[in-house]
Amino acid sequence: MQTLYNLRRELKSKANPKKAKALQRFFKTGYGEYGEGDIFLGIVVPETRKITQKYKDLEFKDLGELLKSKIHEERLTALLILVEQFNQFQRALLNHNAVSKHKHSVVINHYTTRKHSATMLHHSAMTRHSVQARKQIFNFYLKNTKYINNWDLVDLSAPKIVGGYLLMQSHKFLYNTDAIASVLYKLVKSKNLWERRIGILSTFAFIRQNRFEESLKIAEMLLSDKHDLIHKAVGWMLREVGKRSQPTLEKFLKKHASKMPRVMLRYAIERLSEAKRSDLLSDSDKCRRGGG
Hints:
By secondary structure, the chain is mainly alpha-helical. It is 73% helix and 0% strand. It is built from 16 helices and no strands. The longest helix is centred in the first third of the chain and has 39 residues, at 72-110.
């Protein structure tokens, strides 16, 4: 039975104390560290995903309770359920569009205009329902960012939910970047480390569509960020841009490499040739020493 009580009981049944200790060290849960106070059961992500599939229809009320939990895997499960629900509505709409396209062809060739109109009205209602459902998930996510407070929680959810919704909105408004800028910019200007990471990781959805403007703009905004986890996230997204368009990455690096934190630069250039990596790191070091 899909209840919050049963989900929590099942998670606890999978607990591994030895693994939990290792995860608490790995995710920096000690005093003064970025994950301070986080509690782990010691459940690996693949096992958590299996449990997610069994409880994927939980409502926001229960997911909100999970997100407020001090137990890391409970918060992760809530986020994975939200991702699954978001994707379910996306898949349902895509499948419906495919069927409707076929029916539309049949209606035009064999049925009356009245039946054609009924099909189109049903399609329109289905589209509105899917868009509204994903908007609710998106809004719920942004209202609960204070509980999305470790890097794996961000990385496994932000590109799908925040990035996916904003990408949908940008298509709706004909690629008008103003439709998404206010959300992303608010996140990356936050004093909250995890909201800034949500901001940059959300642009992964755009990168996968070979749209780089959002990622490059956010990367510029975060060049002076002080946190190592932001340096890694920005470098990672730049590397993903480079996978799809090396000239785009190199143009960005030519302008900004000298100002990029060392970790950010190293992540960004991982897939470049050894010679190019060496040159960029050397030039960066010269600028840091005042010789550039």
